[in-house]
């Protein structure tokens, strides 16, 4: 079985990135927007791993960046879900238009 090359992995990563951007820009539900941001972060992680494997196989810099991004994404998801739950409790909706009232 043939191992996927760098271009194959970068193509998949670009696909994940653009699906995430499309989902973030077109959806009005805060949960799906959060999932789209997670897709974007995972495409970045895939880039770090691919470049680490194919360009600098002896170093672990890409892996450390990936672990750091995963930790940041977990904290970001926890805070975002807490905000979404609070928004739902106060407004009974998780649409972006209802979140505009949080500004004031």
Question: Please, could you describe this protein's structure?
Answer:
With 104 residues, this protein is mainly alpha-helical. It has a single domain, classed as Helix Hairpins. 78% of the residues lie in helices and 0% in strands. α1 packs antiparallel against α2. The radius of gyration is 17 Å and the shape is elongated. The mean pLDDT is 87.
What's a concise summary of this model?
This protein has 104 residues and is mostly helical. It has helices spanning 6-26, 30-54, 61-91, 96-99. Helix content is 78%, strand content 0%.
Furnish the topology, listing elements before pairings.
Elements: H1 6-26, H2 30-54, H3 61-91, H4 96-99
Helix pairs in contact: 1-2, 2-3
What characteristics describe this protein?
mainly alpha, Helix Hairpins, 4 helices, 104 residues, 78% helix
Report the end-to-end length measured between terminal Cα atoms.
58 Å
Query: Could you say which overall geometry the principal axes of the C-alpha atoms support?
Result: elongated
Uncertain runs are: none
How does the helix and strand content classify structurally? mainly alpha
Q: How confident overall, as mean pLDDT?
A: 87
Helix content: over 70%
Percentage of residues in strands = under 5%
Could you give a short account of the major beta sheet? none
Give the number of domains.
1
Number of strands: 0
CATH fold name: Helix Hairpins
Integer-rounded radius of gyration: 17 Å
Number of helices: 4
String of helices and strands = HHHH
Please tell me the CATH architecture by its name.
Orthogonal Bundle
């Amino acid at each position: 079985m043939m191992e996927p090359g760098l271009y194959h992995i970068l193509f998949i990563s670009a696909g994940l990135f653009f699906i995430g951007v499309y989902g973030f820009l077109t959806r009005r539900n805060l949960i799906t927007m959060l999932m789209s941001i997670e897709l974007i972060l995972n495409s970045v992680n895939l880039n770090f791993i691919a470049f680490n494997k194919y360009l600098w196989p002896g170093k672990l810099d890409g892996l450390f960046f990936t672990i750091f991004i995963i930790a940041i994404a977990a904290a970001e998801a926890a805070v975002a879900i807490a905000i979404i739950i609070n928004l739902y409790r106060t407004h009974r909706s998780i649409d972006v238009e209802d979140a505009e009232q949080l500004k004031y």
